[in-house]
Design goal:
Keywords: Membrane, Transmembrane, Transmembrane helix
Radius of gyration: 22 Å
Distance between the termini: 62 Å
Strand order of the largest sheet: 6-5-4-3-2-1-14-15
Strand content: 15-25%
Number of strands: 15
Protein name: Metallo-beta-lactamase domain-containing protein
InterPro entries: ComA-like_MBL, Competence_DNA_uptake, Metallo-B-lactamas, RibonucZ/Hydroxyglut_hydro
Number of domains: 2
CATH superfamily of the largest domain: Ribonuclease Z/Hydroxyacylglutathione hydrolase-like
CATH topology of the largest domain: Metallo-beta-lactamase, Chain A
Order of helices and strands: HEEEHEHHEHEEEEEHEHEHEHEE
Pfam families: Lactamase_B
CATH class of the largest domain: Alpha Beta
Helix content: 25-40%
Number of helices: 9
Structural class: alpha/beta
Length: about 300
Amino acid sequence: MHKFFSHIRAYLRWYVLLLLVISIVILALVISREDRQGILTFVMLDVGQGDALFIESPTGTQVLVDGGPNNNLMKEISHVLPWYDRHVDILIVTNPDRDHYEGFIPFLDKYNTDLVLEPGTTNPNPAYKVLEDKIAIKNIQKIIVSRGERIDLGGGAYLEILFPDRDISGLSPNDGSIVMRLVYGETSVLLQGDSTARMEEYLAGLEGEALKSTILKVGHHGSRTSTSEKYVTAVKPLWAIISSGKDNSYGHPHKETLDTLNRLKVLTYDTCNNGDIVFKSDRKNFVLKNKNPKPTEVGCKE
């Protein structure tokens, strides 16, 4: 034992130096990962039958749009956040249905956030009260969004709120879904929660060509109740992406939805067949990072 401690004392400075070198290497790896080189990341996470979207701006601002059902978000979050990152700047609940907010409950047990954005509709489900209580206990700022607001994400990226444009407390969760555009340079994503065809056509009449976006996040997991032809024609997306679970009981995505997208020649992919769907933007173009993406199938069958 005496020899052991003598050895440690004799070589202590070398051990300290080795520890310092290892620390510098780890720090360098962290910094290199954080160097985004002007790139915006947009990911549709594979959380099954629900929605969870991750945004990271060129300056590192992180946003989660919806938390998916159950604890599926916790299984996916490591795909977009490194182990040392326990903070997401903004959480957005596009509508208070369980498949959009439930994953935020376990998420907030392990991660911190500065701001929660909500549409203004409510849900009597006890799980929603659990989320609202958790937000209050953690003293997280909560804002009900409104049309015309612009959320600066840094580096020229921002979220533009298109709906709600009024008090929607009396609307159904789907009709009251937050609709917004993620904009970065010449690229954009239209995000709409579970917004229905009725609200889509209202926005198409209100916005017209201003709805045009590179990517359309398809409403309500590809249900026939969304994705009207008038709306998709106004958006003119290059890609449409759908979040739906394998062999889900709703038959999402529905044939009518895929027929509309195919008729308008929109490339359509879903999480069911492709897992996480990852896009990167350099301000001018989005690039789909999935290799050999598989086509979307009616009902998300195995």
